[in-house]
Structure prediction request, 205 residues.
Amino acid sequence: MISTGSAKFTEKRFKLTKQILIWVSICLVVTVSEMLIYNIPNNIYTVFTHSQFWTNTFFALSAAIFEESLCRGLFFSAFVGLGIYRSSKFNITKSAIYSSFLFGALHSINLLSGPVTIVLQQMFSAIAIGTLFVVIRVITNGLFFPILIHFILDWGPLTTYSYDTGGSWVLTLTIFTIIFLVSTKTLSLVDQQLQHLQIEIEKVK
Prediction:
């Protein structure tokens, strides 16, 4: 937070055009669908009946705050700043992808304690979810909602994070490829809006 200077992405929120709103709505539908498919509501219910409620809650909250501040805060802002310096087109979209790949790479540490196949699934899903969190950060112009949704996704008993069983690769690839494509499409529309605004400003000058 100190490095980026602010939790805000811009001084003012982006104007949400009809097209952007449609794709943001699709992002929300995809997010809710993912929560239902991976039984997130049941995990949350289980937390409240679990003997280690505070431990489970603190684990999910601390992970959400740290990872979002680092990846959607510091990393994403750094890539955006570098792109502006280089006058890069589709800067937000590219920065989202770069920071999301770093987010996925961070999960490689789980290779020390879990099977390769399952950890690779985690890394792939983290890249996709990372782009979705960038959409949330850009649209809401802050880190509160990315942290909140990240917390909800992680909020479950620590026993659910065991490596005894892995998910289907077909299911993982299908769900998270959709999330990645929908998120990048939404961000590309935001980039296009910024480019149009920049052209209009240059015309006025």
About this structure: The CA atoms of residues 40 and 153 lie 6 Å apart.
